[in-house]
Design goal:
CATH architecture: Orthogonal Bundle
CATH superfamily: Winged helix-like DNA-binding domain superfamily/Winged helix DNA-binding domain
CATH class: Mainly Alpha
Strand content: 5-15%
CATH topology: Arc Repressor Mutant, subunit A
Structural class: mainly alpha
Number of domains: 1
Largest sheet: 2 strands, antiparallel
Radius of gyration: 15 Å
Distance between the termini: 21 Å
Strand order of the largest sheet: 1-2
Number of helices: 5
Helix content: over 70%
Shape: globular
């Protein structure tokens, strides 16, 4: 089983992808631009490919970044929906969170396989 990418880096990836800027993402996340940049570099290191093309005036997603974005977006959205629906019944919620965390981890960890199928090295 592959190790899970850092969740804070995945969150940074979502915000950078939305803003197409490390600086604006850093402001949104209340972090420094350097911290956001390091999180993205850690995620790129984890997956072994670049997620963004750095341009003089902003960023664009690479093909691999475009493939990863909906996977991460859907995974975070599913987690948020589960947390909302578990406002009552803490025991059931904890069991569901544990199962969902495993499912999210598995889906995101397996993601590079789908990129390898699309973009063989």
């Amino acid at each position: 089983m592959q190790r899970m990418p850092p969740l804070n880096a995945l969150q940074a990836f979502l915000v950078v992808a939305r803003h197409r800027s490390f600086t604006r993402a850093a402001q949104h996340l209340c972090l420094t631009q350097g911290a956001v940049s390091r999180q993205i570099l850690a995620l790129e290191d984890h997956y072994g490919f670049q997620l963004f093309t750095r341009l003089p005036k902003g960023l664009t997603l690479t093909v691999e970044g475009e493939i990863l974005l909906p996977v991460v977006t859907e995974s975070f959205a599913a987690d948020t929906a589960t947390q909302r629906s578990c406002a009552e019944g803490a025991d059931l919620c904890n069991a569901m969170d544990s199962a969902e965390d495993h499912a999210v981890s598995d889906r995101i960890s397996r993601h590079p396989d789908s990129i390898d199928d699309y973009h063989p090295t």
